[in-house]
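Q: I'm building a small set of examples for a reading group on sequence design. Run inverse folding on the following structure and report the sequence directly after it, with nothing in between.
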């Protein structure tokens, strides 16, 4: 049975307010009351309600004022307005400002139940639409971010929460886990999606560690003509090129000390100076940074500024290594297989059971990137319609002792069952036959390991 909604009754008429609350309680609703809009707002600061029943004419703050305040924070919560005879114009105004419905006093209790049920149904449909939209967005994730494990669902939830904001994000995780994919997904779902996404890798792409400091600053902030030998024209840096969009600072832990100071200033002021320039350049950018090593240790070692760390670490997203989310291996492997088989126009359509077992138990030190490369290589060399162990890279097929061992027998069994189910598209009969068990045993193990179809 569905749990009844929590309703806030707001009316300055003491008798009517208490009667309404009593009616609702008798019908199973959980209720609270307020005598005016100001008191209602105070309760909304500390409690959550599924529906508001609000009188229009009240002292201190009337119903219209309460409606406007609530809608500024929550566009979806149902608000049913109550109006006395002769105040229909106010009710119409309330509907234009976002009220869900209105009741004219005096009203029959049946009218009240009808309005509440309609408001609840509308809210349910809004929530269903939001959930469907979220699921569709997750289906459109890049292959590298696919997954159904609990740790990846937490990553998806954080992306959902932070993307619509302008908050600075720090993404942590080992090399190859898909940190840049997370950054791109945050950008894609943000209000800056139509703007540029500029990625800077402090260690590889720009190789700041190997460049003279002046050239490193030039790459990031740009330079004026004549700023240094060889600066024959004005050049915009990546900071300026990212204006209106997102700047992704990959491997931020490798940034030089002077660059760290400059980045801190940009985070604080949203402006910088080109090298050799004396006029500030204002930028509207969102900064997303990533690191594959603990910045806390770098701070302790004196290699990273703590003030910059706290500016970057507003919202932290940790991307787990593949060995800690083995349930996702068969999903990712199957997606990569389909992608590469289609691109190469090869008829490689499946992964053999033994190959699936190897994939599920190997520790993947290179994470998703290594898995993707392994499947690509296997599709290239495969001679039949299935990938067999011999098609895998040698370090995956025949790892050194201990390199591909699951932590426990249960972990290996869980991974093997998940891989078989994924390969057979969750056909329980075929999967059970391949695993050598009956359907009821397979169902029991699916429940035991909390497996779910992707």
């Amino acid at each position: 049975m569905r749990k009844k909604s929590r309703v806030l009754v707001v009316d300055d008429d003491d008798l009517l307010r208490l009667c309404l609350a009593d009616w609702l309680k008798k019908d199973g609703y959980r209720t609270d009351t307020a005598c005016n809009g100001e008191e209602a707002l105070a309760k909304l600061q500390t409690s959550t309600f599924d529906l508001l029943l609000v009188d229009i004419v009240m002292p201190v703050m009337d119903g219209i004022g309460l409606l406007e305040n609530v809608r500024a924070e929550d566009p979806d919560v149902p608000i049913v307005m109550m109006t006395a005879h002769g105040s229909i114009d106010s009710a119409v105004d309330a509907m234009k400002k976002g009220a869900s419905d209105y009741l004219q006093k005096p009203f029959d209790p049946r009218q009240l139940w009808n309005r509440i049920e309609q408001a609840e149904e509308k809210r349910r449909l809004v929530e269903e639409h939001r959930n469907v939209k979220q699921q569709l967005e997750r289906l459109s994730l890049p292959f590298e971010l696919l997954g159904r494990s609990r740790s990846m669902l937490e990553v998806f939830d954080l992306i959902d929460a932070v993307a619509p904001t302008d908050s600075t994000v720090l993404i942590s995780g080992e090399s190859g886990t898909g940190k840049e994919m997370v950054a791109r997904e945050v950008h894609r779902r943000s209000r800056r999606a139509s703007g540029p996404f500029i990625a800077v890798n402090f260690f590889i792409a720009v190789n700041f560690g190997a460049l003279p400091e002046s050239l490193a600053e030039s790459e990031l902030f740009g330079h004026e003509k004549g700023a240094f030998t060889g600066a024959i024209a004005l050049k915009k840096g990546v900071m300026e090129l990212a204006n209106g969009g997102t700047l992704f600072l990959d491997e931020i832990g490798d940034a030089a000390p002077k660059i760290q100071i400059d980045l801190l200033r940009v985070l604080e002021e949203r402006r910088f100076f080109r090298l050799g320039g004396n006029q500030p350049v204002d930028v509207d950018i969102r900064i997303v940074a990533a690191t594959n090593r603990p910045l806390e240790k770098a701070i302790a070692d004196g290699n990273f500024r703590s003030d910059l760390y706290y500016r970057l670490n507003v919202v932290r997203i940790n991307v787990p290594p593949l060995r800690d989310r083995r349930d996702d291996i068969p999903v990712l492997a199957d997606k990569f297989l389909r992608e590469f088989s289609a691109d190469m126009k090869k008829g490689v359509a499946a992964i053999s059971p033994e190959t699936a077992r190897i994939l599920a138990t190997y520790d993947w030190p290179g994470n998703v990137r290594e898995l993707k490369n392994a499947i690509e290589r296997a599709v290239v060399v495969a001679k039949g319609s299935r990938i067999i162990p011999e098609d895998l890279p040698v370090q995956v097929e025949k790892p050194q002792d201990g390199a591909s061992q699951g932590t426990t027998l249960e972990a290996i069994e869980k991974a093997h069952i998940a891989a078989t189910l994924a390969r057979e598209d969750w056909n329980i009969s075929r999967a059970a036959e391949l695993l050598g068990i009956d359907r009821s045993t397979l169902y029991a193990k699916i429940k035991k390991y909390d497996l779910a179809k992707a």
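The mean pLDDT is 84.
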